Amino acid sequence: MTAFQTSTVDVVVVGAGPAGLASAIVLAEAGLRVLLCERHLAPRATPAESLHPGCETLLERLGVGDAFRGGAWPRYTGIRVAGRLDRFGGDARGPWLGFHIHRERFEALLEARAVALGVEVRRGVTVRGLRREGGRAAGVLLDEGAVAARWVIDATGRQHGAERWLGLRRECYSAPLVAWRGEVAGGPMDEDGAARFERHGEGWLWTARLGPEASTWTLLAPRGQPPPALPAHLAGLPTVLPRRGMDVSWRAMRPLVKPGCLVVGDAAAVFDPAAGQGVFFALRSGITAAETLRACLARPFLEAPLLAAYDDWALRQVEYKVHGLRELYRGLGMTLARMDAEALSA
């Protein structure tokens, strides 16, 4: 065996998105040896997405608050829904503002923090499965060999690695949905600097101006149908980043813990972007899972109740988001996410 095949760390985190990076940072802060495995060689360029201002608290926890605020991200005041502006609120320092981010630059900021804390990042590697010992996850299997670890965190996003590796159960809460995203040059300006959310076809359209040069857009539509056409005021504009679709059918893995393994971010649960908390949930679940794991290492005799508490917390987040989305769509008279009786009973 090579030295690589017998390498040992405290924790392997699979996936270098916001959830995996948040977990790696919190674990490395505790002095644990963390290996972060990512199948992509570099972050991919994707259309901008929007962050609720509440993310700032989580970024402070991860030690990147100042660096993030210094990133010159476009800001927005709130969301205009059917002509009504919903602001985020404010405090003595002024109104709260959201952020429009490009994921590749945002993830690079988090990765730099993780590396500075001693996290080993290996890109271009694919995890084929989990190493097992005594009925629990004890590392990962790579093409190059096995890596032993005391714990594994699944942050594989919509690949849902642990669903395959551990036979988790997928629970579905909506009809099949796809979100189409892209960026165009120019675009309409909102007089109050807000993003816009409106009905479009069977679904909805989200648009946000990123500054003087570009706008980002997202369309939600039923999965399995051709991509819906953009409205005329966007369709004729030059493309900055091409349209890309992703499956955003509401779903969650159950359970989100197994001996030696926790599941975070989109690997744990997926909702369509109208939930408005994709990155927030990724960061928060990554932090919460890492803190749970640290507690398990400090008090191994409490592992079972600690894991159960994380699973219960995550399930409550899922239930909250499902309820919120159903209420939003009911208020807008939208039925595209509704599941038929047969699907709901499956």
UniProtKB/TrEMBL annotation:
A Pfam family assignment: FAD_binding_3
A molecular function GO annotation: FAD binding
Organism: Melittangium boletus DSM 14713
Top-rank taxon: Bacteria
Domain FAD-binding: 9-169
Name listed for the protein in its UniProt record: FAD-dependent oxidoreductase
UniProt cross-references to InterPro entries, sorted A to Z: FAD-bd, FAD/NAD-bd_sf, Flavin-dep_Halogenase_NPB
